[in-house]
Specification:
homodimer, mainly alpha, two-stranded antiparallel sheet, DNA-binding, about 180 residues
DNA sequence: CTTGACATGTAACAAGTTACATGATTGG
DNA sequence: CCAATCATGTAACTTGTTACATGTCAAG
């Protein structure tokens, strides 16, 4: 439901190709909305069929031709409608396969589970570094879009990511401590 | 991919009907894995076809008949294989539609966005209360399963939920403060 | 007499994942 | 010469969502 609106949101800033969109997702909202390239192209087709976006083929000489998509009036209306709708309770949609594995972990040894948690903690630390790049690309896009308020909202989402990862690291550390106590 | 393993995990504790499973999901892992009833019945069919579970029809007199599913040897093997596999980086799968709306929020007024964040904060506070029930049902199931280590892992996942919600509330408060400053 | 718990599902659709498929140019 | 970037997609499959469909019994 939301990938469509995500695409409309980006096209609302300006025209883009599927490839551009793919990069934009990756460099900005990937942390909370990962979009596969194949999915983006599928959605572009469907949005175009519904008249929410339109494209123009741009013939290039030293690069492959491309389709530049832009949002239509109908598309902008749909985007703004979605944006002002009351968001559903997001907590009820939270999903985490790692936590299910933890939930059922009594079928493994305590040592194996400590390793699992340590791996999770390391993943978090690595991801925290990757988020720094996201902050940098916010600066980059800010200049492109030329809208001071936009980057404020972007940074709020980046803050969420940082807080989430910190929380995960702390939870993992606490959990490891508890398991080590149990192992005695 | 994981609903299957979640079902196997519960059946590994003991036999259950689809209805029981539906309740078990709701009362324990719902926070990080919500399963629709319809999805559970579909997966049960598919797991049975694959020989990972088997069922016995139980005829009841004052209640509707039911199918009691139990895990097979093959099912247990598959479950343990999944459990000991290295979990994928979970952070790259995190999804949150609310954050996308925040990301694109410069198309709305600051006041509207403050309201949105306040609603989010309230949802979090309400959900925090709901999680207390989950903690209680951990105690209930602990007695049923009679495995002291199991409930330790269950409580780790409940801790994660509490930390996550606290983090969300704090983030929402900070964000509201920032927007109020901006509104001046 | 009505609500909630028990109990099982199907059908249609939407969204996400994985694998495949192609091919040019640029920079090191 | 090899890897990365540019650029577009299809096909098959798995998951997840929403709406529909049916019916009993117990308790308040």
């Amino acid at each position: 439901m939301s990938l469509k609106h995500g695409i409309l949101g980006f096209l609302n800033y300006g025209s883009m190709t599927g490839y551009d969109l793919s990069k934009a997702f990756l460099e900005s909202v990937d942390f909370f909305w990962h979009a596969q390239t194949s999915q983006i192209y599928r959605e572009l087709n469907s949005l175009e069929k519904d008249g929410l976006i339109a494209y123009e083929t741009i013939i290039q000489h030293n690069k492959p031709n491309k389709k530049e998509y832009s949002i239509t009036k109908k598309g902008t209306e749909e985007f703004l409608k979605w944006l002002s709708e009351e968001p559903q309770n997001e907590l009820s949609r939270f999903k985490n396969e790692f936590l299910i594995k933890i939930f059922f972990s009594d079928s493994l040894t305590v040592e194996e589970n400590i390793k699992k948690l340590e791996k999770f903690k390391n993943d978090c630390i690595n991801y925290a570094e990757a988020l720094i790049n996201t902050s940098q690309s916010i600066d980059f896009y800010q200049r492109k879009v030329n809208n001071p308020l936009a980057s404020l909202y972007w940074s709020l989402t980046a803050d969420f990511g940082k807080s989430y990862i910190l929380m995960c690291i702390q939870w993992a550390e606490n959990s490891i401590t508890k398991l080590k106590e149990e192992a005695l």
